[in-house]
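Task 17 of the worksheet. Students: predict the tertiary structure of the chain below and write it out as structure tokens. Keep your answer in the requested format; marks are given for formatting as well as content.
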Amino acid sequence: MQLQRAITAVGLGLGIALLTGILAGVVARSNDPIVVEITIHYSHYEPAAVRVPLGRPVTFVITNTDPIDHEWIVGDATLHARHRTGTEAHHDARPTEVSIDALTTRETTVSFSTPTTLTFVCHLPGHEAYGMVGTLTVTRP
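Model answer:
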């Protein structure tokens, strides 16, 4: 009887340890970045509308299939007004401002701290007017 109790206690202990390990893995994974793929094709973003959760890191994988360079600039109307008249030829310093050379892929990881709707735009000459605009919505989980 004592042996059976000891075996049951060991089994229960192993079960709890296994469950704790599984739950710890789930919690750890919930902090891993979500991957969002955006393709640039014929000077348009695909998809042109993206939803991401508030506070969670998001890795944007942006593939430019065009034979010309593009940008992926995320922000509000004020930021885009600055970029329309800006002088930065290439973007690498900010995770929400990325230059994507022709026929290449770039990755950038961003975490948004406020629920909002932003736009992403290519501000190279004529690209925005041609339709290189998308919407990024940050929502509560």
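Marker's comment: The radius of gyration is 23 Å. The chain has a mean pLDDT of 84.
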